[in-house]
């Protein structure tokens, strides 16, 4: 089973109003104790999972482009020493355009794939999204990233308040003209507990209507396909197989990954302990650091075969290739709800073929609902 490493850097210069991740304001904190705790956490994970080479390392957050190059180097050196890397392992990081002066240092530290959080291409939208960069800065950061990194992807958010179908068409067409081999294109989702959710409750923010959001999604698929970018996952588009996100593919295919940093999650196989194990780290940085010192920073849970199957259905259906039903049964002993699948097939929302269930283009609009209906109960 492939293994990936996720590194969660929890600090941000500014917290975006749509974000529900485990993040905290940077505020010139001393981050040396956190780095030491993460390195100790990685050592503990090596003892749990054994000598397994890493297929990917992904720095997420938060804003990991705020990390010093030396901190990134320290983690990568420890990962190489403790685990090693598969040939061609993906080393990726999520970056904010506001930190583009740091990009050269990030590349020198060993980052080869950069995911740039552009989010929008006009200043008004970026202000509404609470971003700390403007459109010009985003384009300058993209140009610098393309010069420094082997692989570059950008994130964009659509179905924003007041955005029309024509607006999104023009914006996405412009983005597709940058010659990128990967794009992550997300519909704005109002998550509970966020500043945007509070604005919606007060009537200060009106999300895009469902029909308009669906039209934007369909437009996204057609425009990216016309420019040679395959929608290999519900929200992700790549020019070739090699351009896909190797790290995220571990999640979608139910492989193993270990996570270090506050709030990081892990999933890994442990036959001696009864199957697949889930783990979650302490969320607050101070609690995480203290927990590492005491050997109690992670909470472990043995997943039942049913829970494992449910997760695999939810994640696997997001991929263009769909879900391998023979593999699902071999790994968990469970299958999908066949009657529900046949009903969705009759409605043109899924295809059932050669032991595999796959969402159709129409079915992708209802991906989460279909997955919930197909998952074993």
Automatic annotation (TrEMBL):
A Pfam family that this protein carries is HemN_C
Tell me if Iron is a UniProt keyword of this record: yes
Instruction: List the SUPFAM superfamilies hit by this protein, alphabetically.
Output: Radical SAM enzymes
Q: PROSITE patterns recorded for this chain?
A: RADICAL_SAM (PS51918)
| UniProt subcellular location | Cytoplasm
Domain Radical SAM core residue range list: 1-230
Q: Does the keyword Iron-sulfur apply?
A: yes
Q: Which InterPro entries match?
A: Aldolase_TIM, Coproporphyrinogen-III_oxidase, Elp3/MiaA/NifB-like_rSAM, HemN_C, HemW-like, rSAM, rSAM_sf
A molecular function (GO) held by this record is: 4 iron, 4 sulfur cluster binding
Name a single GO biological process.
Answer: porphyrin-containing compound biosynthetic process
Q: Which domain of life is it from?
A: Bacteria
Keywords of the record, alphabetical order, are: 4Fe-4S, Chaperone, Cytoplasm, Heme, Iron, Iron-sulfur, Metal-binding, S-adenosyl-L-methionine
Q: Which GO terms describe its cellular component?
A: cytoplasm
Q: Which cofactor does it need?
A: [4Fe-4S] cluster
Q: What does this protein do?
A: Probably acts as a heme chaperone, transferring heme to an unknown acceptor. Binds one molecule of heme per monomer, possibly covalently. Binds 1 [4Fe-4S] cluster. The cluster is coordinated with 3 cysteines and an exchangeable S-adenosyl-L-methionine.
Record-stated family: Belongs to the anaerobic coproporphyrinogen-III oxidase family. HemW subfamily.
Output this protein's name.
Heme chaperone HemW
Q: Which organism is it from?
A: Marinicauda pacifica
Name of the gene encoding the protein in the UniProt record = hemW
């Amino acid at each position: 089973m492939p293994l990936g490493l996720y590194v969660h850097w929890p600090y941000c210069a500014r917290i975006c109003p749509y974000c529900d991740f485990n993040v905290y304001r940077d505020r010139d904190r001393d981050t040396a104790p956190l780095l030491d705790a993460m390195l100790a956490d990685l050592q503990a994970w090596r003892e749990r999972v054994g000598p397994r080479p890493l297929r990917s390392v992904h720095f997420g957050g938060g804003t990991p482009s705020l990390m010093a190059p030396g901190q990134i180097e320290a983690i990568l050196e420890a990962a190489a020493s403790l685990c090693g890397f598969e040939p061609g392992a993906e080393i990726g990081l999520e970056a904010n355009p506001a930190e583009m002066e740091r990009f050269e240092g990030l590349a020198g530290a060993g980052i080869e794939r950069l995911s740039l959080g552009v989010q929008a291409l006009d200043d008004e939208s970026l202000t509404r999204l609470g971003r700390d960069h403007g459109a010009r800065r985003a384009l300058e950061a993209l140009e610098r990233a393309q010069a420094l990194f082997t692989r570059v992807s950008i994130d964009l958010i659509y179905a924003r308040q007041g955005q029309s179908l024509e607006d999104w068409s023009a914006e996405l067409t412009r983005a597709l003209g940058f010659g990128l081999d990967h794009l992550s294109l997300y519909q704005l989702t109002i998550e509970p507990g966020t500043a945007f959710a509070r604005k919606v409750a007060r009537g200060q923010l009106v999300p895009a209507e469902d029909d308009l959001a669906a039209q934007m999604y369909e437009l996204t698929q057609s425009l990216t396909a016309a420019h040679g970018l395959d929608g290999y996952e519900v929200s992700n588009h790549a020019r070739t197989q090699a351009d896909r996100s190797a790290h995220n593919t571990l999640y979608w295919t139910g492989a193993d990954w270990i996570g270090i940093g506050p709030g990081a999650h892990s999933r890994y196989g442990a036959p001696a302990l009864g199957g697949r194990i889930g783990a979650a780290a302490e969320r607050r940085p101070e609690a995480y650091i203290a927990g590492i010192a005491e050997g109690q920073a992670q909470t472990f849970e043995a997943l039942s075969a049913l829970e494992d199957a449910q997760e695999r259905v939810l994640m696997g259906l997001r991929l263009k290739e769909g879900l391998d039903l023979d593999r699902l049964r071999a790994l968990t002993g469970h299958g999908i709800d066949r009657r529900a699948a046949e009903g969705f097939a009759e409605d043109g929302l899924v295809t059932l073929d050669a032991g595999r269930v796959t969402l159709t283009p129409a079915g992708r609009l209802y991906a989460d609902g279909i997955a919930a209906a197909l998952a074993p109960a």
